[in-house]
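Quick one:
INPUT:
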């Protein structure tokens, strides 16, 4: 999909990964609608940075846990930008054990409403417009779905957050079926990144140095990811992944594999040219 003069709706676009995605897409010549809920103090800086690209954009405040709010935001985005080609479905709550402690029932409800229900609400509102253009959807999720509250990530991924992110895979599959053949829907599963599970977050600063080192030691590439790296993956899924739908792209620096060394291969008991067909 050629991105120039196309239109994107980016959720959570006021900060962190959402903001990086909005700016990267604007840099590709896309018109951008940014939906935001909190961090109002960052609005002015975002507006200034988007304006520098010379593309049409709008900033829309909404609580997307409500279906009517999702419908209204979509309508406003289409009215302002004239079309809709891409949804970056970057909405979640995130639950650090080191920040929130054990989840209360209210926290569980908030997690599901934000990470799952809001994603569904906005997708259902956007789908008719995306079908008109032959667009794409990118669901942002976390490796918490695979890791859970275990190992070095135990202080980062609450079980409620892990459960909600595991549900994103079901949404991605269902959305892909609903969108086919006109709309591609894929999932971008993220590991430890700056502003998301990593540096620049309150939770990261609450971890002690030993805990941080354990996370990095468990990551094959030995570091947390950069916002620019997420933005490039989003552009790939939007622009280049033309035969990819219902799939998951994992961007975690190798955390899921772990950094345990593979042992050297043993010499074996048969010579290299041995014939073992009849054993």
């Amino acid at each position: 999909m050629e991105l120039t003069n196309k239109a994107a709706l980016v959720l959570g676009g006021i900060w962190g990964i959402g903001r990086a995605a909005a700016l990267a897409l604007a840099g590709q010549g896309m018109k951008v609608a940014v939906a935001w809920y909190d961090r109002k103090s960052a609005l002015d800086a975002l507006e200034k940075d988007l304006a520098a690209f010379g593309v049409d954009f709008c900033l829309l405040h909404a609580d997307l846990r409500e279906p009517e709010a999702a419908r209204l935001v979509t309508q406003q985005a289409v009215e302002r930008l004239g079309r809709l080609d891409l949804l970056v479905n970057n909405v979640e709550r995130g639950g650090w054990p080191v920040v929130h402690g054990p989840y209360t029932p209210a926290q569980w409800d908030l997690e599901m409403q934000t990470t799952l229900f809001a994603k569904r609400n906005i997708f259902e509102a956007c789908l008719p417009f995306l079908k008109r253009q032959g667009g794409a959807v990118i669901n942002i999720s976390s490796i918490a779905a695979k890791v859970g509250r275990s190992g070095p990530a135990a202080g980062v991924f609450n079980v409620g957050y892990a459960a909600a992110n595991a549900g994103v895979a079901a949404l991605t599959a269902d959305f892909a079926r609903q969108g086919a053949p006109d709309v591609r829907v894929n999932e971008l599963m993220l590991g430890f990144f700056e502003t998301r599970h990593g540096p620049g977050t309150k939770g990261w600063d609450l971890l002690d140095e030993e805990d941080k080192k354990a996370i990095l030691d468990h990551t094959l590439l030995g570091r947390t990811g950069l916002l620019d790296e997420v933005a490039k993956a989003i552009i790939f899924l939007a622009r280049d992944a033309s035969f990819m739908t219902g799939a998951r792209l994992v961007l975690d620096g190798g955390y899921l594999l772990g950094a345990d060394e593979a042992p050297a291969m043993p010499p074996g008991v048969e010579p290299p040219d041995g014939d073992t067909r009849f054993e």
